[in-house]
Amino acid sequence: MTTAALSGRIENGSREWLGFGALLLAGAALWFVCRNYPAELPIFFPWEFSWPVFLATAMSLAWFFTGLSRLPRAQHPPKWRSACFVIGVLLLYAMVQTHIDYYAQHMFFIHRAQHFILHHVGAFLIALGASGSVLWAGMPDFLKPVFTSRPVRAIIDFVMHPVVAPVLFVGMIYVWLIPAIHTRVMLDKRLYDIMNWSMALDGIAFWWLVLDPRPKPPARIGSGIRALLIIAVEPPQMALGAVLSLAGTDYYPVYQICGRMFDIPALSDQHYGGLIIWLPGTLLSLLAIILVLINMRKNEEAALHAPA
CA separation (Å) from 68 to 20, 139, 206? Predict the structure, then answer.
């Protein structure tokens, strides 16, 4: 390596570390104002500041834009995919680090809308962004061995197994809505955070598995299996949504205990939440199947035109 090239790498590395330092200072400032002036802050500020959420969001976006600057333009994902990734990350952040999270703790239907974004829309957009190579290029070298380590790879392989993935995807929705568990979770900050993290991460894993634009291999499963997985997760969600939206019993009195934000009867609140589980998820699954078919066609055309 020439002296000029080495000097350039050192300069770029110093600039990146300064950028990460600026993000930490921004996080510290946000933590300070949220801790000391919560009532004076606008709705788009965190209700309860979370360092893990802030760092996960800030580092993801920082690695993404750093990766774009490092990769040749020919290796950049299409702009629409990049936009999907950024919007998806920001949506996840908005669901848990704005006053939306406070409303979700006091209204069941807002809670279901929050989880629909975490588990479906936001995770769907992140997976649609297909930005793994960009994030890898922007990630600091000292962290890469962590993500390639055997324990981490084993966890990823398990979560994204074609049998395990749909069970977890639907199971997470059911488990956190078991009335006894849901009541405990909504009254325990640590369990509440675990619930939100699990919904977001599981959603990203499932949607990446089925929306991976690459053929098999290197993708984990083929297009036919992807379509079947999308179809498989839909009936249990529809059934749960139907039960909640048609029930004559309030299964979640914890929202009455905590105090509802709006003057809506408990059953109406629950019915609206059930409809959010039932209808929007069906439409998103239909869109996912269409995207799988489009990717399949593109991969078949690419294979036909590939040199022998």
Answer: 16, 11, 25
Q: Please answer whether residues 211 and 128 qualify as being in contact, where contact means their C-beta atoms are separated by less than 8 angstroms.
A: yes
| Longest Cα separation, the chain | 75
3 state SS of 261:
coil
What pLDDT, in 10s, does the model give residues 7-57? 545 555 567 778 778 888 999 999 999 888 877 888 889 888 999 999 999
The domain spans of the chain are 1-41, 44-305
Neighbours of 143 (CB within 10 A): 11
Please state, in angstroms and rounded to a whole number, the distance separating the CA atoms of residues 274 and 261.
18
Q: How far apart are CA 159 and CA 206, in angstroms?
A: 8
Give the Å distances, CA to CA, from 234 to 117, 158, 168, 292, 295. Answer: 16, 21, 13, 16, 21
Q: What is the pLDDT of residues 199-243, one digit of tens each?
A: 999 999 999 999 999 888 888 999 899 999 999 999 999 999 999
Q: CA quadruple 268, 272, 277, 283: dihedral positive or negative?
A: positive
CB atoms within 10 A of CB 215: 16
- In angstroms, rounded to a whole number, what is the distance separating the alpha carbons of residues 158 and 62? 28
What's at 257, amino acid-wise? I
Residue 218, preceding peptide bond in cis (omega within 30° of 0): yes
Q: Where are the alpha helices (DSSP H) in the chain?
A: 3-36, 51-70, 79-96, 100-104, 108-116, 122-129, 132-138, 144-148, 150-159, 164-176, 179-186, 189-211, 223-246, 254-258, 266-305
Give CA–CA dist 248/270, Å, rounded.
10
187, 253 Cβ separation under 8 angstroms: no
